[in-house]
Amino acid sequence: MRVTLTLTLLVAMAAAAHAQAPVAETTVADQVDVAVTAYNNGLALVRDARKLSLPEGELHLKFMDVAEQIRPETVSLRSVAAPGSVTIFEQNYEYDLISPAKLMEKYVGKQVRLVNFSTEIGFTEVAAELLSNNQGPIYQVGDDIFLGHPGHVVLPEIPDNLIAKPSLIWLIDNQQAGQHLEVTYLTNGISWKADYVITLARDDQALDVAGWVTMDNGSGATFTNAKLKLVAGDVNLAPREMPKRAFAGAAIMDANGVGGMPAEEAFAEYHLYTMPRRTTIKQNQSKQLALLGATGLECRKKYEFRGHARFYSQRVPPIKEQRVGVFLEFRNDKENRLGIPLPAGVMRIYQEDSEGMLQFAGEDRIDHTPKDEDVTLKMGNAFDVIGERVQTDYERVAPNVHESAFEITLRNHKESDIVVDVVEPMPGDWRIYDESQPYEKKDAQTAIFRVAVAKDGEAKVAYRVRVKH
């Protein structure tokens, strides 16, 4: 019994000592450096360094001006000035922010003061008890009950359990009076994406490309003069439970080959882009930053007439005036004046008209694209190129064997000769024979006929195929 009482007394004394520990506060005014690393999935890593004058010994450190969408389970605290000089006993994240609704909620059952705009209800200022704030305030003044009133509610003070800013609060043992602390945490609400502007030459043989980063900050904090890094890639995140707030390289060159663009490097299985200049990322702000630029890239325009795998196992009615897709293709390598890992994003294509004015010519989304790979963009459908498909024969040779014959007609109403790729997706095991011109077996399920079509001309391709499912 004496041992139990002694342990209980020791625990009580320790709790009392913690409760009486002094409280120190730090705001963004103490910040000496901040860095933000943003990921593609709306997540960002924040490093917030501050210089403080803290007393030695145990104290509560209130670290204010953190992001409202912080993930508190990811927070770490370390001393930059004297590693190992800070020991953390307890960490809390307080986010019960002051708001009119919260203040009214905290004062239910307590005395408030009502100040009215007029004397029509018998008083201009009076003490009242807030009985309820459910679907609207209810007050008692003497023996009368008021459902709202034409004026203001005046509160005597702000409750202790409401705060003006989200704060991290540590109970620490500080062994050095002057401290340089760095807090690192993950936060939601910061996203970035890449957008590209492509200017295509009039002859469709060359293009210029400019890449931009668009950042959106909805994290609930402003990061002033921050060092900014961007991670491009698909970073895996462990599945999270239902959200609940509970917690007791080589330089990229610009268009003229001059430095000043972000530095790019391989990082883990991703790519990291470091912005060359610090920037301020304001709360609820959308910001654009230059990512890359290059001029004079060789490219080619492709025309594509595409079939469908279902055509080969059934009778198909004639398909007239089928549109021909238009694609722009270029190589992402150093020989073609680029050779940079390209973050996923939308590439928008512009081209000059006869008066030299840029006009929008289409857009397409690219995935993360390594260097030394081709980039293919769909611009749209050709207005002046039409295709027709006619199934000239069909026979079901066996329950799972089908034989079909097709004739494809391409008409070119443009003022120049073109080549159209007739792309035929082939299901199962297949063999083409009796073809009117050679084809390329691109892979196990695709055959491509490259058909030259003269300006204001017409070209045909015919073939027979046997397909076994």
What's the helix and strand layout?
Elements: H1 2-19, E1 23-26, E2 31-38, E3 43-53, E4 57-64, E5 76-79, E6 86-94, H2 100-106, E7 111-116, E8 125-132, E9 138-141, E10 144-147, E11 151-154, E12 167-174, E13 178-188, E14 190-200, E15 206-217, E16 223-232, E17 250-251, E18 263-267, E19 270-274, E20 279-281, E21 285-306, E22 319-332, E23 345-352, E24 358-366, E25 373-398, E26 401-412, E27 418-425, E28 429-433, E29 440-443, E30 446-453, E31 457-468
Parallel strand pairs: 1-4, 2-16, 14-23, 21-27
Antiparallel strand pairs: 2-3, 3-13, 4-12, 5-13, 6-12, 7-8, 7-11, 8-9, 9-10, 14-15, 15-21, 16-19, 16-20, 17-18, 18-19, 21-22, 22-25, 23-24, 25-26, 26-31, 27-30, 28-31, 29-30
Q: Care to describe what's here?
A:
There is one protein chain. The chain has 469 residues and is mostly beta strands. The protein has 3 domains: 11-95 and 163-188 and 223-281, Sandwich (Immunoglobulin-like), CATH 2.60.40; 100-154; 300-333 and 374-468, Immunoglobulin-like. The chain has helices at residues 2-19, 100-106, and strands at 23-26, 31-38, 43-53, 57-64, 76-79, 86-94, 111-116, 125-132, 138-141, 144-147, 151-154, 167-174, 178-188, 190-200, 206-217, 223-232, 250-251, 263-267, 270-274, 279-281, 285-306, 319-332, 345-352, 358-366, 373-398, 401-412, 418-425, 429-433, 440-443, 446-453, 457-468. Strands 14, 15, 21, 22, 23, 24, 25, 26, 27, 28, 29, 30 and 31 form a 13-stranded mixed β-sheet that branches. Strands 2, 3, 5, 13, 16, 17, 18, 19 and 20 form a 9-stranded mixed β-sheet that branches. Strands 10-9-8-7-11 form a 5-stranded antiparallel β-sheet, with no helix packed on it.
